[in-house]
Specification:
Layout: E1 5-10, H1 14-24, E2 30-36, E3 51-52, H2 55-59, E4 66-69, H3 74-86, E5 90-93, H4 96-113, E6 117-118, H5 129-136, E7 142-148, H6 151-162, H7 167-176, H8 185-188, H9 191-205, E8 215-216, H10 224-232, E9 236-245, E10 250-260, E11 273-280, E12 284-291, H11 295-309, H12 318-321, E13 327-328, E14 333-340, H13 343-348, E15 353-359, E16 364-371, H14 372-377, H15 379-385, E17 388-391
Parallel strand pairs: 1-2, 1-4, 2-3, 4-5, 5-6, 8-10, 10-13
Antiparallel strand pairs: 7-9, 7-11, 9-10, 11-12, 14-16, 14-17, 15-16
Helix pairs in contact: 1-11, 3-4, 4-9, 5-9, 6-7
The structure holds NADPH dihydro-nicotinamide-adenine-dinucleotide phosphate and ligand LTNE7NMQ.
Domain Aspartate/homoserine dehydrogenase NAD-binding: 11-120
Catalytic activity: L-homoserine + NADP(+) = L-aspartate 4-semialdehyde + NADPH + H(+)
Enzyme class: oxidoreductase
């Protein structure tokens, strides 16, 4: 018989409500004791006695043994999650920002307190990638984990590319559908994808990389000329996080738009769907596909974690325990397409090589190879110029 879970839920927005809908349709040995929200005046779909704005009513209730954290505030989430884990309560969270920023500490807290933090819903919504990295690939040598990790930016790219919708209209729809973060800069700027790939990399390679050290440039400067460039090449633009082994000891992690070729699995991943490609030494390439955002898909991943907690499941971070440490750096050289406005930007970027250059009255671009570190250092210059940069995906011989 599984353990009874008495749940304290934090957040009753898109994901909280989605999780609740799923839970009532199943007959598990669990009960929602209390739900913490922020705004006591909002109308709710459940009786008011279930709700509280006082987090201590949940955190200090000895009957509540499980905390489900689904709020849209990473700082408050950190306080809630660490307090719960330190005080004997297991936690499920979907807060990728909070998890990526504090992962090493969260692992330590679990170890010291014998508690468990699960977060499948934090990475690629409904796709069970964390559990697979943790369990299925635990002894497999992984070369790369990459894909489409953000539903909102993929939704926008699909709408502007396939249906000629405007960027702003598509973003507004992604927000209305509940896919976007409260601050959508996190989605379109590639931060959300970066937090997710940092979490995935900890399970794939055993490294706890600091998100602040990782390059992320998103689709915020996308223009019609960039879409036209991709179309003319028979390619699509996607926002792609990458965590890739350079050799036995080094991994590069970055998030950039990518020119995706027809034969790539990501080519057909549209709207809020995500796709995760795992390149393994022996299993070779495997591809996971599913909804990356939305209340029910994400709620389903949270529900699966809750179900796993009934049997005291915990992540073991096996790859972090192995002796040969792997380090993250930005030394990799990649080939990029860069559409820019000010010629001076090109001089400041330290391209290793420029293979193609085009300039007309109002459209200038180069295709060339450049070190990730140099893009990282010039990120603000690139964004302020209004430039758009994309990984061409072409192999650079070293
Ligand atoms: N939406 C999605 O598709 C996905 C979201 N996520 C993550 O899930 C989390 C929730 O997202 P989502 O449901 O979309 O967000 P919403 O904005 O829809 O809901 C947020 C909820 O959190 C509550 N809240 C905010 N601050 C506090 C606080 N300090 N204490 C208690 N409750 C609080 C809000 O209360 P009130 O109702 O009173 O405003 C609201 O109910 C985020 O971390 C997000 O990144 C992960 C995967 C997918
Ligand atoms: N804002 C996120 C929600 C899920 O993680 C996204 O668009 O993917």
């Amino acid at each position: 018989m599984s353990k009874k879970l008495n749940i304290g839920l934090f957040g009753f927005g898109i994901v909280g409500q989605g999780l609740y809908d799923i839970t009532v349709s199943r007959n598990l040995n669990l009960e929602f004791k209390k739900i913490a929200i922020k705004d006591a005046t909002k109308e709710r779909t459940l009786p008011s006695h279930l709700f509280t704005t006082d987090k201590w009513e949940i955190l200090n209730d000895p009957e509540i043994n499980t905390i489900i954290e689904l709020i849209n505030d990473a700082n408050a989430a950190y306080e809630i999650v660490t307090y719960a884990l330190k005080n004997g309560k297991n936690v499920v969270s979907a807060n990728k920002k909070m998890i990526a920023l504090h992962l090493e500490e969260l692992v330590q807290i679990q170890k010291e307190n014998g508690t468990s933090l699960l977060y499948e819903g934090a990475v690629c919504g409904s796709i069970p990638i964390i559990r697979n990295l943790e369990e299925y690939y635990d002894n497999e040598l992984l070369y790369a984990v990459s894909g489409i990790f953000n539903g909102s930016s993929n939704y926008i790219l699909s709408k502007v590319f396939n249906e000629n919708q405007s960027y702003n209209d598509a973003l507004k729809k992604a927000q209305d559908l509940g896919f976007a973060e409260t601050d959508p800069t996190l989605d379109v700027g590639g931060y959300d994808a970066k937090y997710k790939v940092v979490i995935a990399a900890s399970h794939a390679y055993g490294i706890f990389a600091n998100p602040d050290d990782i390059l992320n440039i998103g689709i915020q400067n996308l223009q019609n000329s960039d879409l036209k460039y991709a179309r003319e090449k028979g390619q699509k633009l996607k926002l792609v996080p990458v965590a890739k082994k350079q050799n036995d000891k080094e991994v590069s992690i970055y998030v950039l738009p990518k020119l995706v070729k027809k034969e790539d699995f990501l080519f057909n991943v549209e709207n809020e769907y995500n796709g995760v490609s795992v390149q393994a030494a022996f299993a070779d390439q495997q591809f996971f596909f599913g909804k990356g955002a939305g209340g029910h898909p994400t709620g389903a991943a949270v529900f699966s974690d809750i179900s796993a907690l009934r049997y005291d499941y915990r992540y073991e971070y096996k790859k972090a325990l192995i002796e040969e440490k792997i380090n993250f750096n930005n030394n990799e050289v990649i080939e990029v397409y860069l559409r820019y406005n000010d010629e001076d930007l090109i001089n400041k970027l330290h391209f290793i090589d420029i293979e193609e250059r085009f300039s007309s009255k109002d459209y200038h671009y180069v295709v060339g190879s450049i070190k990730l570190e140099d893009i990282f250092k010039a990120k603000n210059l690139i964004l302020e110029d209004g430039a758009f940069i994309a990984d061409t995906g072409n192999y650079i011989a070293s």
